[in-house]
Amino acid sequence: MSFNAIVIRKDESGYRVAKEELDESTLPEGDVLVAIDHSTINYKDGLAITGKAPIARIFPLVTGIDFAGTVRESASGDFGPGDRVVLNGWGVGETHWGGLSQLARVKADWLIPLPAPLTTRQAMAIGTAGYTSMLCVMALEDHGVEPGGGEILVTGASGGVGSIAISLLAKRGYTVVASTGKTSEADYLKLLGAAEIIDRATLSQPGKPLAKERWAGVIDTVGGATLANACAATRYGGVVAACGMAQSLDFPGSVAPFILRGVTLAGVDSVQCPMPRRLKAWERLAAELDLDQLEAIATEIGLDEVIPTAQQLIEGKVRGRIVVDVN
Ligand code: NDP
After folding, report:
1. What is the DSSP string of 216-256?
2. Which of 34, 46, 158, 207 has its CA 20 to 30 A from that of 91?
3. Do 254 and 312 reside in the same domain of the chain?
4. Quick check: helix, strand or coil at residue 99?
5. Mean pLDDT of successive 10-residue stretches along the chain, which has 327 residues
């Protein structure tokens, strides 16, 4: 049986990406075969598809770091045919064929049951980005940041992680300040629950080691000078959850906020996140995320539109989340 997928190849003709028809016999080893319903384009997929960063580690590679679908065959006792499943990370779409595809064969250990009451489309509207937003919220909570305790800054606010973080935080009663380069999206960010919108230009240039204390907590998706400035303006004992690098991988900051104000810099990783925390994050997403707002955050495309959309995403032109109906 054949299936369609977005494939990255690198050989004497160079690095190239195309939608291809593949034969099922070419799928990698794994104990579960999944018929994929929906996938998505995350920032990392954008980097892989455009070749802007060395995300693809094997060639050819079916790209896509996550998917949601239905088990077709299983050699694992944990999943059987007909089970609906979700996968995020674990190197899928990097070192193992991924989710921008109609079929995937993966290890059962990487799968989680689709959390009720989500559909596969909703699970991919959330995707790795939204699951990371929840990991960031959990990082703030773990360090004692509570609703009513002061303003929370969310950077890269109109992006996937940022949009879902705003929605989750506002629903829990936090006061959210959204930093964006798309000030024209102010109405969208307010609809998600942002109390105030700031222009990201106010944060993106190198600043002082310490600034006036403002943030009780920060969810930073962009890194670089923005992350350093966010730390510099975090209040005594506050927490900065750092998960992204859309501005830069650099951290041109000072230790002053950490040693003079007891600020915590909490790193957030979704790829190798242990299964119990992963399940907790998804359980909470299913219970807490406003599904009407998720609809407003998501735009659906087909496999044919993946490559140009990935380019736009890397250029910072995409709002919210992209769901890919692979069929
Ligand atoms: P998106 O592309 O959806 O959003 C990124 C947003 O960052 C953009 O929409 C834009 O928001 C802002 N941005 C883009 N370029 C710049 C720039 N040069 N300077 C400042 N801000 C910029 O990506 P995601 O939300 O999916 O991912 C965000 C980041 O989080 C990425 O770096 C991604 O790799 C990382 N990530 C990390 C994970 C982990 O496990 N640690 C998991 C998932 C994502 P605006 O226009 O509103 O400013």
Report:
1. EEEEESSBHHHHHHHHHTEEEEEEEEE---SSBS-----SH
2. 158
3. no
4. coil
5. 97 95 97 98 97 96 98 97 97 97 98 96 97 98 97 97 98 98 96 98 97 98 98 98 97 97 98 97 97 96 98 94 98
Q: Which two tokens stand for residue 84?
A: 């609906």
Q: How far apart (Å, rounded) are the C-alpha atoms in residues 210 and 127? A: 35
Domain assignment of residue 122, yes or no: no
Say whether both 162 and 85 belong to one domain. no
pLDDT recorded at residue 192: 98
CA angle 66, 70, 76 (to 5 degrees): 90
- The residue from 219, 247, 267 where one domain ends is 267
- The domain of 39 spans 2-114+297-325
Mutate to test the pocket of ligand 1, among 124, 161, 168 (most ligand atoms within 8 A of CB): 161
Q: What is the CA radius of gyration of the chain?
A: 20
Q: Give the residues surrounding ligand 1 with Cβ less than 6 Å away.
A: 42-44, 128-129, 132, 156-162, 180-182, 200, 204, 221-222, 226, 243-247, 268-271, 313, 316, 318
* 3 state SS of 315: coil
The question of ipTM being above 0.85 is answered as: yes
Number of domains in the chain: 2
CA–CA separation, 257 and 261 (whole Å): 5
Distance, CA 220 to ligand 1 centroid (Å)?
9
**What's the token pair of residue 86?**
């979700």
